[in-house]
Amino acid sequence: MLTVETKLAELWDSYGKVQNERQMKLYARWARSCEHYILMRAIDQIIDTSYKFPTLAELKSTYNGMRPKRDSIVIDPENVCYWCQDTGAVPAIDTDPVHGDIVRMYGCKCSSAMSLSKFHLMHPNGQEKYMGRVKELKGFAYPQAIQIIFRELHTNERVDV
Ligand SMILES: [Zn+2]
After folding, report:
1. What residues make up the domain containing 41?
2. If you measure from the C-alpha of residue 116 to the centroid of ligand 1, how many angstroms do you get, rounded to a whole number?
3. Quick one: 58 and 95 in the same domain?
4. How far is the CA of 112 from the centre of ligand 1 (A)?
């Protein structure tokens, strides 16, 4: 496993920067408190995409953006809720009198919805009107299938499945 110091040195090297011990210490002090593999990925991403050496704030922001949103909950890909993908929100295509067809989010019936605000209404899982097409799109999770159907409604082009 790469140490934090080795990885940070890689960052300095990538930008052709001479290592400054005090600056390095500052970065390392923060970096040691990070989740190791996410930090490694964050540094890789910066090296791959940023044209200039990142400030500590930029590094922190990239790192924070990569952390799982709900890190207290272990996500088990086998057990992800089909309807909401564990986001707690299920999309539905509604017809708005002004805007026509729109996608609205509803609270899922599963336990993930517990974290959502009460402004989300419970949605009976699955929109009957579109379930035939959803079944054809069986390679996709429900929220993706609804997005595809929504696009199909607007473009009149069907996605091949
Ligand atoms: Zn759910």
Report:
1. 4-67
2. 11
3. no
4. 6
**Number of folded domains that form the chain:** 2
Nearest CA among 68, 15, 17 for reference residue 38: 68
- How confident is the model over 86-139, as pLDDT tens digits? 888 888 898 888 888 888 888 887 767 665 555 456 666 688 889 999 999 988
Identify whether 75 is part of a domain: no
Q: Quick check: is 72 in a domain?
A: no
Q: Does residue 138 share a domain with residue 103?
A: yes
What is the CA(143)–ligand 1 centre distance, in A?
10
Lowest mean per-residue pLDDT among 63-77, 110-124, 139-153: 110-124
CA–centroid distance, 81 to ligand 1, in Å, is 5
Sequence-ordered strand ranges (E) for 65-145: 89-96, 100-107
Residue 9 lies in a domain: yes
Place of tokens 């017809």: 95
Distance 29 CA to ligand 1 centre (A): 39
60 Cα–ligand 1 center, Å:
31
Instruction: Give how far Cα 127 sits from Cα of 42, 104, 120, 138, Å.
Output: 39, 12, 16, 15
The CA 21 to ligand 1 mean position distance, Å, reads 49
Tokens 């190791």: give the residue.
36
